[in-house]
Amino acid sequence: KAGVTQTPRYLIKTRGQQVTLSCSPISGHRSVSWYQQTPGQGLQFLFEYFSETQRNKGNFPGRFSGRQFSNSRSEMNVSTLELGDSALYLCASSSPARPGLVTYEQYFGPGTRLTVT
Amino acid sequence: KQEVTQIPAALSVPEGENLVLNCSFTDSAIYNLQWFRQDPGKGLTSLLLIQSSQREQTSGRLNASLDKSSGRSTLYIAASQPGDSATYLCAVRRISSGSARQLTFGSGTQLTVLP
């Protein structure tokens, strides 16, 4: 079974531009979460989508947004990029709940390295 | 607010040594705890997941324990190898509808195993 895939793997943008990152979850997984990783702040939760609905959102400005499609693929968008948005953006899909076993174990993709200049 | 701390921040050991990585969390109302490994510039690989009702989980040379009441977890690595060199992260998931899948991460322990 294929793992979580993220595209593109690397991206260089200029301040003020916008960017869209894509994530395809493991087949059968319906939950997708996004995290930002920086050397200074570590890993921080951005948002989670389940069945095309945003279920939870972290403490990030409105410039960060996302969506999920009917096939569970997800995109996140960052508008008006700032230098501080340079980070590794990680996507995770959650294991499906089975009767009697709800673990919410998360499986991460390789990430998209965004550099803002 | 849940806070997760990992000590030490960095650890260097000779090959073959057994070692323990520590993780502590401030809110014991957790759903489960997950240990990850991250290689430089890469994503996270799930190592072990411990449900709140469990005390430990084992996978190969890895053993993770959980003491929810004291807010602590340890990851034991037996007979360490140079290939174990990576950053190890622990993350906890709270008991709370709406944030059931959100993980709070520690800052990680960077492990170097010397040949």
Summarize the structure.
Chain A is mostly beta strands. Chain A has strands spanning 5-7, 10-13, 19-24, 31-38, 42-50, 53-57, 64-68, 74-78, 87-94, 106-108, 112-116.
Features:
heterodimer, A: 117 residues, mainly beta, seven-stranded mixed β-sheet, four-stranded antiparallel β-sheet, globular, B: 115 residues, six-stranded mixed β-sheet, five-stranded antiparallel β-sheet, 11 strands
Fold and architecture overview:
The complex is a heterodimer of chains A (117) and B (115). Chain A is mainly β. Chain A contains no helices and 11 strands. Chain A has strands spanning 5-7, 10-13, 19-24, 31-38, 42-50, 53-57, 64-68, 74-78, 87-94, 106-108, 112-116. The model of chain A has no long low-confidence stretch (mean pLDDT 91). Chain B has 115 residues and is mainly β. Chain B is globular. The model of chain B has no long low-confidence stretch (mean pLDDT 92).
